[in-house]
UniProtKB/TrEMBL annotation:
<keyword id="KW-0375">Hydrogen ion transport</keyword>
<dbReference type="InterPro" id="IPR020781">
    <property type="entry name" value="ATPase_OSCP/d_CS"/>
</dbReference>
<dbReference type="InterPro" id="IPR000711">
    <property type="entry name" value="ATPase_OSCP/dsu"/>
</dbReference>
<protein>
    <recommendedName>
        <fullName>ATP synthase subunit 5, mitochondrial</fullName>
    </recommendedName>
</protein>
<dbReference type="InterPro" id="IPR026015">
    <property type="entry name" value="ATP_synth_OSCP/delta_N_sf"/>
</dbReference>
<keyword id="KW-0066">ATP synthesis</keyword>
<comment type="similarity">
    <text>Belongs to the ATPase delta chain family.</text>
</comment>
<dbReference type="Pfam" id="PF00213">
    <property type="entry name" value="OSCP"/>
</dbReference>
<keyword id="KW-0406">Ion transport</keyword>
<keyword id="KW-0813">Transport</keyword>
<keyword id="KW-0472">Membrane</keyword>
Length: 207
């Protein structure tokens, strides 16, 4: 009888254990530390994907609303004002407690100006968690979807991508590169094929 009770108890414990994934990559800087703390908190509450989705909503709102962006960046506002402003922002959508609490911490610590960087860092953590590698293609003008697809196929066969990794392509616009493109693999590999880079090299040769 005792062994049956013990067996049932162990089964109940196993069913209620939440396996918390390890942080997949080490990120540095203020944004990296806060993103890592958020990843750990979201893991414990089984909210990794929800938090990622909600952060994307917040980032989209910041990009679309100049007043919101200015509010987050404004150094003249005290922390209490920032905290009240964040509470108002989060009322506009259905956000989980993990996301709400995190933005309260950012407001209290005076780190709301790092919001976009922290969101990007969290996105990098989630990509690594899913076995993805972020490849950012920087161009002077937006690339056509069919060209992006062709680049994705080519890049997936490159030495920078491991066989078990999935590619996640992003196209960022930077007119200052003039033409050509730059390709960033994750955080530490860059291929510079921009016109601006070629001009710089030519100028060095000429001088």
């Amino acid at each position: 009888m005792g062994s049956i009770f013990l067996s049932n108890s162990l089964n109940l414990i196993r069913q209620n254990i939440t396996i918390i994934p390890k942080v997949p990559i080490t990120l540095h800087g203020i944004d990296g530390r806060y993103a890592t703390a958020l990843f750990s908190a979201a893991s414990k509450t089984n909210n990794l994907n929800n938090v990622e989705s909600e952060l994307k909503q917040v980032k989209s709102a910041i990009k679309k609303d100049a007043k919101l962006s200015n509010f987050l960046e404004d150094p003249s506002l005290n922390r209490n004002q920032k905290k009240l402003g964040v509470q108002e922002l989060l009322k506009q959508g259905k956000y989980c407690d993990t996301t709400k609490n995190f933005f309260q911490v950012l407001a209290e610590n005076g780190r709301l100006n790092e919001t976009i960087k922290i969101i990007d860092a969290y996105t990098s953590l989630m990509a690594a968690h899913r076995g993805e590698i972020l490849v950012t293609i920087i161009t002077a003008k937006e690339l056509e979807p069919n060209l992006l697809d062709k680049l994705k196929i080519t890049l997936s066969k490159s030495k920078f991508v491991k066989p078990n990794q999935k590619l996640r392509i992003e196209n960022k616009i930077n007119p200052s590169i003039l033409g050509g493109l730059m390709i960033e693999f994750g955080e530490d590999q860059t291929i510079d094929l921009s016109v601006a880079s070629k001009i710089t090299k030519l100028n060095k040769l000429l001088t």
